[in-house]
Design brief:
The structure is a single chain. By secondary structure, this protein is mostly beta strands. 0% of the residues lie in helices and 51% in strands. It contains no helices and eleven strands. The strands form two sheets. Strands 2, 4, 5, 6, 9, 10 and 11 form a seven-stranded mixed β-sheet that branches. A hairpin with a 4-residue loop joins strand 7 and strand 8.
């Protein structure tokens, strides 16, 4: 069992940066793939970035094409935290941001239905 809790969302202006956090807990959470998704009203949950454990203290990231160069995922296993640094935010980035976790996979799943655990989400609103 893995528990996730997001934090750090808020209201920002277009062009601003924001870091949101995902606190993970559970006996084997360090070996889980943890990813960030977002969901805007009446839209499906959308993959943004994920981080997969590849042994020891090594994790590798993966990004959706539309966030490459703008969003950065990072992981601090000592603190059981996963972060998403978001730069140059746009009004269309407005959504509820979720972190999801799934046991070790060959790759990083990009579909929400492939994840077993979710946090409650944190709202990010970008004003124009």
């Amino acid at each position: 069992q893995v528990q996730l809790a997001e934090s750090g969302g808020g209201l920002v202006q277009a062009g601003a940066s924001l870091i949101i956090s995902c606190a993970a807990s559970g006996r084997t959470s360090s070996s889980y793939t943890i990813s960030w998704f977002r969901q805007a009203p009446e839209k499906e949950r959308q993959f943004l970035a994920g981080t997969r454990w590849s042994g020891g203290n090594t994790y590798y990231p993966n990004y959706a094409d539309f966030v490459k160069g703008r969003f950065t995922i990072s992981r601090d296993n000592a603190k059981n935290m996963v972060y998403l640094q978001m730069n140059s935010l746009k009004p269309e980035d407005t959504a509820v941001y979720y972190c999801g976790a799934v046991g070790r996979q060959v790759g990083i799943p990009t579909t929400a239905s492939q994840y077993d655990y979710w946090g409650q989400g944190t709202q990010v609103t970008v004003s124009s």
